[in-house]
């Protein structure tokens, strides 16, 4: 019994490592969010920190993608500088998703930024 459990544990560990490597391969470490920058400095989005360290589900952000781990459509494909029909503009989309979560998490985790300059950093 002991050995079988050890074996199963080994397989599970190998699987977890494989999944981790697959994610590391598809998801970028950081992504620049700068397609509509006009008044504010561009935002450097720490993708790994969210998707891997914080284990936030891909779907939380990639809300229109069936399988974000395989392929994602850029937010900017749909969310442009100005709203189009029912599709909100990029600023609204990002502020709603990004700041929205940070406001919820602030009390528990002060590292989730809500101040303008903590995201719109002048480098
Ligand atoms: C959690 C991160 C975050 C915080 C905090 C944040 N923003 Fe943004 N904001 C973004 C992202 C991402 C974009 C999209 C940037 C782009 O595509 O150029 C954006 C876009 C904008 C834009 C439109 C683009 C531009 O440069 O004109 C304005 C204006 C803006 N933010 C103002 C603010 C102000 C004012 C605050 C503080 C009250 C703030 N933001 C706080 C992430 C954030
Ligand atoms: C907290 C929000 C968030 C989470 C969670 C998230 N992503 Fe992303 N992801 C983004 C944003 C924002 C972009 C870049 C903006 C754009 O161009 O659409 C992006 C870009 C990507 C890209 C394209 C990178 C490039 O350079 O073109 C891939 C691939 C990706 N994400 C995969 C994933 C996978 C897989 C997961 C889950 C393990 C995930 N993402 C979780 C927000 C997120
Ligand atoms: C294929 C097009 C498409 C892509 C790609 C897309 N969105 Fe959206 N998004 C929409 C549409 C359309 C809506 C309007 C409501 C709905 O249909 O879900 C929306 C709504 C939203 C909302 C709700 C806004 C509000 O006022 O409540 C947020 C937040 C959002 N998107 C963020 C994002 C982010 C962040 C990304 C990239 C990681 C992204 N979207 C990618 C089409 C898209
Ligand atoms: C579902 C929750 C959630 C969403 C959605 C989310 N974040 Fe975060 N974010 C966090 C948490 C939690 C942290 C604190 C991470 C830590 O403890 O280091 C954080 C930290 C950050 C930091 C600071 C990282 C550092 O190194 O100090 C930036 C910048 C940031 N987020 C930008 C964004 C942007 C831009 C988006 C939208 C594309 C976004 N976040 C969406 C939860 C979220």
Topology summary:
Elements: H1 2-26, E1 30-33, E2 43-46, H2 47-53, H3 58-61, H4 75-78, H5 90-105, H6 116-119
Antiparallel strand pairs: 1-2
This protein binds heme C (4 copies).
Residues 33-40, 42-43, 90-91, 94-95, 98-99, 102, 113-114, 116, 118-120 line the site of one heme C.
Give the CATH architecture.
Alpha-Beta Complex
Q: Would you count the extended β strands for me?
A: 2
Low-confidence stretches: none
Total domain count: 1
Largest sheet: 2 strands, antiparallel
Identify the overall geometry.
Answer: globular
CATH H-level superfamily title: Cytochrome C3
Q: What can you see in these coordinates?
A:
A two-stranded antiparallel sheet has the order 1-2. It has a single domain, classed as Cytochrome C3 (Alpha-Beta Complex), CATH 3.90.10.10. Helix content is 49%, strand content 7%. With 123 residues, the protein is mainly alpha-helical. The N and C termini lie far apart (57 Å). The structure holds heme C (4 copies). One heme C binds at residues 61-64, 73, 75, 77-79, 86-88, 92-94, 96-97.
Summarize the structure.
The chain has 123 residues and is mainly α. It has helices at residues 2-26, 47-53, 58-61, 75-78, 90-105, 116-119, and strands at residues 30-33, 43-46.
